[in-house]
C-alpha cells in the first residue's frame, strides 16, 4: 500500500507539469499564519540587506565628494562592489549549508554580523577600515542571510510561489528607497557617524523582528550529491548555463546607475535636492517593476518578461550618455528603475520556478549561479569608475555598461529558445503517454 504524502514530502518535478493537484495541495500549505510570517520576515531581511547594498550610491557620492575626497571614484566603488559580490556569490557556501539544514545558523549569524558591521562603520574615517567593515564584513553578513531568506519561502508555496517571491523581492526595492532618503538627509543634518548609527539601529531592530518571524518547515535533504557531481549535472543543463551566463554579463552593468546616478546628476549641475532623490525615484520605480512578474505570470511566461525587460534596460543604460537635464534624470530613473525591477524579479522566478526541478538542490543550484553573478557585480563598478576618470567622462562607462547589458540580453534570448524547446518536448512526451494509455 503506497504511503500517503505527508508535510515533509517534496515532489521533484518541474513547475507547470501535469502533477496531480491533490499532491501539490497536500505537500505545500499555500498559506497560513506561519507561511505568511516567513514571507514577511524574508521581506524584512531583503529590506535590510539587499536594499542597503542597492543604496550604496549615496555612500559613493558622499565618499567621492566629501568624506574620502582624496580617493578616486573607482577605488571607492570597490567597497560597494565587494559588498555586492559577497551578498550574491556567498550563496555558493550558504546554499550548501542551507540544503544541509543550517538555515537558522545562517539567519541569526548573518543578522548579527550585519548589525555589528554597520555600527562599526560609524567609527571609520579612512578608506581601509571602511573597506573592511562595509565591504567585507557587512557583505558577509548580508550574504549569509540573502539566499536562505529567498529559498525558505519555497517550503510553503508551490502554486502561489511566484506571488510570494514577488512580495519578498519587493522588500529589497522598498529598502533601496527608504535607506537613501534616510542617509542623504541625516548626512546633512547629523553628520556621518550619527547618521550611520541611526541607520544601524533601524536595521538591527528590523532584523531582530525578522528572526522571530521566519521558520524553516521541511527537513534537510537526506541525500546530497558530491559537489563535483552536482556541478557536472548543472553544466549539462543548457538553460541553466545560458541563464547564468546572461545574468553574469548583465549584472556587470547593473550597479552603474545604482552607484553613479546621483553623482552623475550632481556633476551635471542638477539641483542637489533632486539629485539626492534621483536614486529614490529609480528605486521606487524598481519596487513597482518587481511586482510585475508575480502579478502577470499567468498571462506571460517568466522567461519572456526577463528578455523584454533586460532589452529595455540595456537601451536605457545607453541613453545615460545623454543625461544632462532634470527631465533626462527623472525619465531615465523612472524607466530604468521599472524595467530593472521587472528583470530582477523575473530572473529570480526563472531560477526558482523554471530552472530548478528538485527543491533538494535549490540552495546549491542558486548558490553556484549567484557566485558567477557576484563576480560580474564585483568587476562592473570599478571598471565604470576607471573609465569615468577624474575628468568625469560619463559616456565611457555608459557605453561599456550598455554593451555588457546587450550581451546579457543575447544569452537570455538563447535561454528562452532552449526553455521553449524543452517544454515543447515535454508536452509531446506527455501527449504520447496519454495516447498510449487511451489505446490500451
From TrEMBL:
Protein's membrane topology: Multi-pass membrane protein
Q: Which InterPro entries does the protein's record reference?
A: MFS, MFS_dom, MFS_trans_sf, Proton-linked_MCT
Q: Where in the cell is it found?
A: Membrane
Where are the annotated segments for Disordered? Answer: 1-21
Q: Which UniProt keywords apply?
A: Membrane, Transmembrane, Transmembrane helix
Major facilitator superfamily (MFS) profile domain location = 37-422
**Lyase as UniProt keyword:** no
Biased composition, Basic and acidic residues: where in the chain?
1-10
Q: Which Gene3D superfamilies match?
A: MFS general substrate transporter like domains
Which stretches are transmembrane? 33-55, 75-95, 102-123, 129-150, 162-183, 195-214, 235-256, 276-296, 303-323, 329-355, 362-379, 399-419
Cellular-component GO terms for this entry: membrane
Name the PROSITE patterns for this protein.
MFS (PS50850)
A molecular-function term among this protein's GO annotations:
transmembrane transporter activity
Family, similarity comment: Belongs to the major facilitator superfamily. Monocarboxylate porter (TC 2.A.1.13) family.
Protein name listed in UniProt? Major facilitator superfamily domain-containing protein
Amino acid at each position: 500500500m503506497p504511503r500517503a504524502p505527508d508535510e515533509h514530502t517534496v515532489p521533484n518535478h518541474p513547475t507547470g507539469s501535469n502533477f496531480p493537484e491533490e499532491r501539490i495541495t497536500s505537500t505545500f500549505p499555500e498559506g497560513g499564519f506561519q507561511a505568511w510570517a516567513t514571507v514577511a520576515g524574508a521581506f524584512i531581511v531583503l529590506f535590510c540587506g539587499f536594499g542597503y547594498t542597492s543604496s550604496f550610491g549615496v555612500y559613493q557620492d558622499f565618499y567621492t565628494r566629501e568624506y574620502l575626497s582624496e580617493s578616486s571614484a573607482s577605488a571607492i566603488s570597490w567597497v560597494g562592489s565587494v559588498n555586492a559580490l559577497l551578498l550574491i556569490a556567498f550563496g555558493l557556501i550558504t546554499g550548501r549549508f542551507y540544503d544541509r539544514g543550517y538555515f537558522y545558523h545562517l539567519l541569526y549569524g548573518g543578522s548579527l554580523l550585519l548589525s555589528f558591521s554597520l555600527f562599526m562603520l560609524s567609527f571609520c574615517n579612512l578608506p581601509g577600515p571602511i573597506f573592511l567593515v562595509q565591504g567585507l564584513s557587512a557583505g558577509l553578513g548580508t550574504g549569509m542571510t540573502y539566499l536562505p531568506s529567498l529559498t525558505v519561502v519555497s517550503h510553503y508555496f508551490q502554486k502561489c510561489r511566484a506571488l510570494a517571491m514577488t512580495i519578498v523581492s519587493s522588500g529589497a526595492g522598498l529598502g533601496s528607497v527608504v535607506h537613501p532618503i534616510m542617509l542623504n538627509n541625516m548626512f546633512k543634518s547629523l553628520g556621518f557617524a550619527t547618521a550611520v548609527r541611526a541607520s544601524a539601529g533601524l536595521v538591527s531592530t528590523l532584523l531582530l523582528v525578522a528572526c522571530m518571524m521566519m521558520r524553516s518547515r521541511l527537513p534537510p535533504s537526506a541525500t546530497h550529491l558530491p559537489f563535483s557531481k552536482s556541478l557536472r549535472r548543472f553544466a549539462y543543463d543548457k538553460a541553466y548555463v545560458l541563464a547564468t551566463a546572461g545574468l553574469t554579463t548583465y549584472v556587470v552593468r547593473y550597479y552603474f546607475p545604482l552607484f553613479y546616478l546621483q553623482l552623475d546628476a550632481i556633476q551635471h549641475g542638477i539641483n542637489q535636492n533632486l539629485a539626492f532623490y534621483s536614486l529614490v525615484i529609480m528605486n521606487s520605480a524598481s519596487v513597482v517593476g518587481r511586482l510585475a512578474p508575480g502579478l502577470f505570470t499567468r498571462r506571460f511566461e517568466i522567461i519572456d518578461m526577463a528578455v523584454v525587460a533586460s532589452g529595455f534596460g540595456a537601451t536605457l543604460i545607453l541613453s545615460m550618455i545623454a543625461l544632462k537635464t532634470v527631465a533626462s534624470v527623472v525619465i531615465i530613473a523612472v524607466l530604468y528603475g521599472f524595467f530593472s525591477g521587472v528583470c530582477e524579479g523575473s530572473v529570480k522566478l526563472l531560477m526558482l520556478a523554471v530552472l530548478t526541478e528538485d527543491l533538494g538542490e535549490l540552495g546549491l543550484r542558486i548558490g553556484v549561479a549567484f557566485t558567477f553573478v557576484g563576480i560580474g557585480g564585483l568587476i562592473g563598478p570599478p571598471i565604470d569608475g576607471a573609465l569615468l576618470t577624474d575628468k568625469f567622462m560619463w559616456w565611457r562607462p555608459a557605453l561599456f555598461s550598455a554593451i555588457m547589458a546587450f550581451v546579457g540580453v543575447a544569452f537570455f534570448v538563447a535561454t528562452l529558445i532552449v526553455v521553449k524547446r524543452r517544454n515543447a518536448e515535454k508536452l509531446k512526451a506527455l501527449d504520447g503517454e496519454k495516447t498510449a494509455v487511451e489505446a490500451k
